[in-house]
Every structure is written in C-alpha cells, then in structure tokens.
Amino acid sequence: MITFQNLTKEFRQGGARTLVADNISMTFPPNRSVALMGRNGAGKSTLLQIIAGTVRPTSGQVLIDGSVSWPVGFSGAFHRDLTGLQNVRFVARVYGVESDELVGFVEEVSGLGHHFNLPVRTYSKGMRARLAFSTSMGIDFDTYLIDEISSVGDREFRRFCERALKERIKDRAAIVVAHNPYVLRRTCDCGVVLEKGQAVWFDDLEEAIGYHEALMDAA
C-alpha cells in the first residue's frame, strides 16, 4: 500500500514555477492496478520517481508498506558503464534474489542478444527499457511502477510486456502510466487523473478514462 501525505512537488527554473503535486493526500490500495493519467507534462513520471525514491518531494511524504519496483521504462536505475549482465547481477544483490536465476530470466525474455554483455551506455532507449522491464518482472515486488510499456520495443515484445505484467499483478499492485487507453484497459481496474497538481481518484477505470478525455477535449 502506498500513501501520499500532503505531497507537494514543484520545479523552479528561470523564475518559472511548475507545480506537479499540490498538497496531495491519497492512498493507493493493495492488490489494485491503477492507471495514472494526465496530459503531457502533468508530472506522471515524476510521481512514479517520487514513489520509487529517486526524486524527493518538495514537502510532504510518501508512506510505503511493502516492496516497490523502480519505474519500469526509467533507465536511471542502471549504471551506464556496466554491461546489462553486470547491472542485473548488481540488482539481484541489492534486492536479495538469486543472481543466476534473475540473469537467466532477463537474458531469455529481454531479447537483447549479444548486447546483454555490452555497456548500457551503448543501448538505445528501447533496449534500456527492455532491460528495465525484464529485470523488474524477474523480481517479486508488492507494487510495480510501469511507465509507458506501450513504447517498449516492437509489437511482439509489447504484447509480451502486457502479458507478463498482467500475470505478475494478479495478486499484486501496480501503478501504470500509458497514453494508450487500450493498454490501460488491459492492465488496470481503477484510475487516477493528474491535472494542475491535483489528483482525482476513480474506483471505476472507464470513469477515469472519460474524465481524462474530457479534460483533453476542453484544452
């Protein structure tokens, strides 16, 4: 379970202030798959990074009960000068999972081929996302943070991502960012819409999608 308590996050640059979260208090329940929606720049990926602990809030706090993945699709989890293989072994040690088992899983499902033994700095954006998704799916987290799996790799791999995620979260929680409503309908059962620093919870996914689309049409 993840709880926001008076969570605020703002960015300041050149005198301009961008408010991503404005004193948000909200609980993401366990065993639910939540679609996180909002217009481009609303701060969806930033919220995932705050939950993961890679970005600090301006004020307020995030309370986490259980283990949480890094944002899948966010390549910052990996050291650029290490190979994919070395990065996976490091992640295995950090999360206390069997190294050879995780390496075998990632090597099989990522489709990286010989690139798995090359430095991550040589990877394309899609290859880094493949590495991140495959590594995350190989670890049993209580909550998975998924950022735009619909943009990862080719169509066959995207379908694999959807199937693997759906299997993983049958009895787990997830927070999923995707612009494609089709992906959200296949993986989520409720939603949160982020707009101008405010977050609105919907227990019904279709209501969340409808509200988000109405905001986009009114823009």
**Main pleated sheet:** 6 strands, mixed
Point out poorly predicted stretches. Answer: none
How do the strands of the widest beta sheet line up side by side? 5-6-7-3-8-9
The ordered string of helix (H) and strand (E) elements is: EEEHEEHHHEHEHEEH
Into which percentage range does the β-strand content fall? Answer: 25-35%
What share of residues is helical? Answer: 25-40%
Helix count, per DSSP? 7
- Using only C-alpha atoms, the radius of gyration works out to 17 Å
User: Which shape, going by the Cα principal axes?
Assistant: globular
Number of DSSP strands? 9
Mean pLDDT: 88
Structural class by secondary-structure content: alpha/beta
Terminus-to-terminus distance: 33 Å
Summarize the structure.
The protein is built from seven helices and nine strands, in the order βββαββαααβαβαββα. By secondary structure, it is α/β, with parallel strands linked by helices. Helix 5 (155-168) links the parallel strand 6 and strand 7 (173-177).
